[in-house]
Design brief:
The chain is of the alpha+beta class and 257 residues long. It is built from eight helices and five strands; from the N terminus they run αααααββαβαβαβ. Helix 5 runs antiparallel to helix 6.
Amino acid sequence: MGAPKFNSYQSSQSSQKKYPHIESNLNEENYIQEEMLLRELTTQKSEDGESLWLLSYSDMMTLLFGFFVLLMSFSKIDIEAFEKVKKETTTLFGGEYQKPFQQMKTELKDKVALSGLNDKAVFDELEKGLTITFRGSVFFESGSAELKPEAIEMLKQVIPIVKRQNSKFNVVVEGHTDDNPINSDKFPSNWELSSHRASAVLRLFEENGFEKKHLRAIGFADTLPVLPNRDDNNQAIAENQSQNRRIVLKLVRATTK
C-alpha cells in the first residue's frame, strides 16, 4: 500500500484562509473565537427576556428627561394659564374648583365686616389674585392724604391675613381721585394727591414686615373713573365722584420660576 493521496481540490480549499489579512492560522483561530464570543454577548437575552439594546434606550430617555428638566428650570410658570387649565380639568371631571386664595378672601371679608365697612368695600376675584376696592371717604378726608384712625385699625386687622401669604402675593395699592382739581402747596394736582394716598396705605404694610420687593404704590389721579364724574351739561355728579374717590388694594400672585 502506498501513501494516501489527497485530492488536490480539497487540499487547496483547506489551505485557503477565511481571513487572509490575518498572518497566521493561530491568530486567525483566536480572532474567530473572539468574534463568536462577542456575537453571543450581543445577541443573548437577559434574565428579563430583554436585549441589551434596552440599556442604550434607557440612557437616551435619561438624557431627554434631564434636558427637559433643564428647560423647565429656565422657564416662568404662567399662573393664570395654569389656573385656567386646573379649573377646566376639575369641572370636566365633576369636581368643585376652588381658587388658591379663596380662604384668604373669606377671612378678609370677615375682618372688613367687623370694622363696619363692609358696604364700602367691593371684592373682585382675578385669575391671579384678589382686588379690594374701598370707595368714598373710607380712608381719607377730602383733599387729605392722612389715613383716618378707623382706616388704620381696619388695615391692622387685614394686614396679618395677607402677611401669611407674603411670599406668594405682591401687594399693589392704587390711589384714585375724582376730577375736581386741587392746587395746594403739598398737592399741586390730583397726581400728587392720589400717589400720596397710595403710599400712605403701603407704608402700613412695610411697617408690618412686608418686603419692599413685594410692594407697589401707584397714583392714577382721575384718569380711571368707574363712573362718569359729570353729566352731559358738565355738572358734577356728587354720588359718582364719591365712587371714583377710592383706594384699590390688589393682591396679585407672584410669578415664580
